[in-house]
């Protein structure tokens, strides 16, 4: 059963739990920085921050919760939400499935019957989503995403030009995936522009507090609880949380649901967003990753919070 988060007299208790989870997370010393995008290997490996934003608009934070990092694959969840809003779930489902793939995030695997990517949380699926948004908005697609992500965070987000360039110069595997998607009739011929949109969305800068607020916006049925802004559509929010639940942690997703039980999405920049429907968003940042591309301290922190606060869905 979940505790009632953040009535005023419990404020110190929640901060106390957060501080304790942070201290325990510091003991986690495994993992390595992502270096396949060269610029990602230049961050401070020991950074660690955790934030919680409640669906009533309160924010709790500890450690490096205001340190900016690139959102990377965490963007896939929010991009999917926008694609559903823009063209409807039936149209989106024709181009990308909702089945956990059990494969790594950068796998070159497609559903053999439909040629669709398995889900929108692996690179192939997220590039498909970028293709949907590019079809819709052309060169304006990135500004559209940036605007919505910023409104979900409740402030104008920044952009890391160096990480973007670094990925653009080295992202040949993603370009290969995009060409296979074109060959399968899943995305249009604007392959380079679509991949460019995908690289750009991955280079948006966020903090753990931003991720917690973006998570709280999903938890609060698409309305940012801090600003009252209706950022996302309710049906799209539901579909997004469902896919985060089953596919958000890549080939660790089954274990994640089993042990931790919270819809979540990770990124190789070191961020994780967690969403507890109607209750709160969690944001964590620590750039050392495990072999599946998930933040070691972030996974430990969300696991501990799930345990301490009784957040598991079952
Ligand atoms: O496409 C990539 O490889 C990166 N821009 C994002 C991958 C990612 O974040 C996977 N996460 N764990």
UniProtKB/TrEMBL annotation:
Q: Which superkingdom does the taxonomy of this entry point to?
A: Bacteria
Q: Could you tell me which InterPro entries the record lists for this protein? A: Beta-lactam/transpept-like, Glutaminase
Q: Where does substrate bind?
A: 73, 123, 167, 174, 198, 250, 268
What's the Enzyme Commission number for this chain?
A: 3.5.1.2
From the UniProt record, list the reaction(s) this protein catalyses: L-glutamine + H2O = L-glutamate + NH4(+)
Q: Per UniProt, which keywords does this protein have?
A: Acetylation, Hydrolase
Query: Which family does the entry's similarity section mention?
Result: Belongs to the glutaminase family.
Q: What is this protein called?
A: Glutaminase
Q: Which organism is it from?
A: Labrys monachus
Q: What gene name is given for the protein in this entry?
A: glsA
